[in-house]
């Protein structure tokens, strides 16, 4: 939910002004591109973090579980929201119509979520598919969350953290190139 909400909130947030023709008001305002990005990505990431926390608290009501590393869990929640909000911002800028806006989340992101070890451990896969799974950025997010909750992960937490930060850096550099 955090990944899909981050992606859709940021992409729709920047696409709607383009679609309505009000993007010129934003572009002519005395704000820098950095402030624009912080505004859109910050709003999408904040909403996603709140949604993640609400899901967490709701689950806590119905199921008893412990979080071994709560600060790491919050860090991965924040990084997940920011990274996919940045990626959603890129999609929103790229999209010229509604079909393109929904293409990447439907064709790319949804399979990555399901194939990223969300519902299974990647160690259960044959070795060739484990190698293929290492190219999925969602694997590192899920592995970081799994480690923060249970202390076990498919990928070392430092590798997960560095992979997520690399994905964020790639998104930031892409947005910088676009502006």
Describe the structure.
This protein is mainly alpha-helical and 179 residues long. The protein has helices at residues 2-20, 23-28, 33-62, 70-94, 98-114, 127-133, 137-150, 157-178. It is globular.
**Largest sheet descriptor:** none
Give the ordered list of helices and strands.
Answer: HHHHHHHH
Shape: globular
Beta-sheet strand percentage? under 5%
State Rg: 17 Å
Give the SSE map.
Blueprint: H1 2-20, H2 23-28, H3 33-62, H4 70-94, H5 98-114, H6 127-133, H7 137-150, H8 157-178
Question: Which features would summarize this protein structure in a list?
Answer:
mainly alpha; globular
Quick description:
The chain is an all-alpha fold and 179 residues long. Helix content is 78%, strand content 0%. It has helices spanning 2-20, 23-28, 33-62, 70-94, 98-114, 127-133, 137-150, 157-178.
């Amino acid at each position: 939910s955090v990944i899909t909400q981050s992606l859709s909130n940021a992409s729709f947030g920047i696409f709607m002004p383009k679609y309505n023709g009000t993007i010129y008001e934003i572009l002519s305002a005395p704000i820098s591109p950095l402030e624009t990005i912080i505004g859109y990505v910050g709003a999408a990431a904040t909403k996603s973090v709140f949604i993640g926390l609400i899901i967490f608290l709701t689950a806590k009501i119905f199921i008893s579980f412990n979080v071994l590393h709560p600060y790491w869990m919050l860090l991965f929640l924040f990084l997940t929201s920011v990274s996919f909000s940045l990626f959603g911002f890129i999609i929103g800028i790229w999209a010229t119509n509604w079909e393109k806006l929904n293409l990447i989340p439907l064709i790319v992101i949804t399979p990555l979520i399901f194939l990223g070890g969300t519902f299974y451990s990647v160690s259960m896969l044959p070795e060739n598919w484990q190698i293929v799974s290492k190219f999925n950025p969602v694997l590192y997010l899920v592995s970081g969350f799994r480690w923060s909750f249970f202390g076990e992960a498919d990928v070392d937490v430092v590798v997960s953290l560095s992979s997520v930060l690399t994905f964020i850096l790639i998104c930031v550099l892409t947005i910088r190139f676009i502006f």
